[in-house]
Amino acid sequence: MRAVSPLIPRLKFRRWLVQAIVAAALCCVAQSVFAQADDPLHHEWVAGDVRKEIADHYLSVLPFDWSVNQPEPYLNALMLVLVIPDWWNGNPVGAAMRYCPQHNSRIWDSIPFLTVRPFYHKRYWAHVECRP
Fold first, then answer.
1. Which has the closest alpha carbon to 80: 103, 62, 55, 48?
2. Contact 106, 45 (CB under 8 A)
3. Considering only Cβ atoms within 10 Å of each terminal Cβ, which end of the chain, N or C, has fewer?
4. pLDDT digit string (tens) for 96-130?
5. pTM of the model as a whole
6. Residue 96's closest CA among 122, 125, 53, 64?
7. Which residue intervals of 39-131 are DSSP H helices?
8. Distance between CA atoms of residues 78 and 51, nearest Å
């Protein structure tokens, strides 16, 4: 009879141990990634979301029947048109300034300024540059 070398079971055990450690490490990494993805506090805001952030801001602050178009690239920032209804009375340029994003908004992390151009009584008015 042939004698079984004690080296072979050790190699199999070491290979199994390394595979188990790698699998456990991958599970831990995957679990932390999925936990951060589900947690709203760990959601990383990227520059691509700036247009959505601007749209959300104006959707939350504008009065009924006012609207804005999608922001478009303008110089080194973005420009949008603020559409003011005809029934409103007041200064459209002042209204555009009043609805600029706050200085601590996440919008300013991505763009240096935001140009808002009011459209009121079927014509464009002077634009306003919102800055942080």
1. 55
2. yes
3. N
4. 999 999 999 989 988 999 999 999 999 999 999 99
5. 0.63
6. 125
7. 50-61, 92-98
8. 9
